[in-house]
Amino acid sequence: QVQLVESGGGLVQAGGSLRLSCAASGIIFRQSVMGWYRQAPGKQRELVASISSGGSSHYSNSVKGRFTISRDNVQNMVFLQMNDLKPEDTADYYCNTIYNKVSWGQGTQVTVSS
Questions:
Q1: pLDDT tens sequence across 53-82
Q2: Residues whose CB falls within 8 Å of the CB of residue 96, separated by 6 or more in sequence, listed in order
Q3: C-alpha 2: how far from chain center
Q4: Separation CA 28–CA 67 (nearest Å)
Q5: According to the model, what pLDDT value does residue 100 have?
């Protein structure tokens, strides 16, 4: 059974940091390109970072230089270190594969206060 479980969100002041975690099961994780997505209120879900099975990463312009994606292919987990958070980073954050997406998890809420 496919399952994605995100955690690590919370309320933080602008300039602060959070580390999100995603535990994946039911997929061939080590072969999957994984991504972190976010959806702000009233907006479409967007991809903010991705990481290949070999560790190559890509970022959206809005988070480049502030967020770092990483993965653990033994624990089947993907992480998102978020530094220098801004109010516009406020959103629900989700992980999923980039290709052949699976069922979305419940996400984790990030709120950045100014």
A1: 999 999 999 999 999 999 999 999 999 999
A2: 4, 34, 35, 37, 102, 104, 105
A3: 17
A4: 25
A5: 86
